[in-house]
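User: Run a structure prediction on this.
Assistant: Running it now.
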Amino acid sequence: MEWLHCISYFFGGAFLANAIPHFVSGVMGQPFQSPFAKPRGEGLSSSTVNVLWGAFNIAVGYVLVLRVGTFDLRSPADVLAMGTGAILMAVMAARSFGRFHGGNILNGRPASERKPQ
């Protein structure tokens, strides 16, 4: 596998992972943060905007994974590249969106205030 294909699969995985919260929130009819909100990435965008943003992310992910090179689900290198991009984007989204939706709070305290046990 060429290294450019590996990079393409990595970013394709990131786009596909980013599509999930936007598309699902939009389909559920709930507003969600998006790059088009005010303030950018913090304010809420309409469900329609999120469905469209999620669909755009799916399309870009599709192109980066399935139209660049020959992605093979049986190839550990291909799956590792795409999976790494998806996991990193998912963790970044969880940390970012968690501060707005309570996902970074455990037992009523933010993760940054908890003491290690």
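The mean pLDDT is 89.
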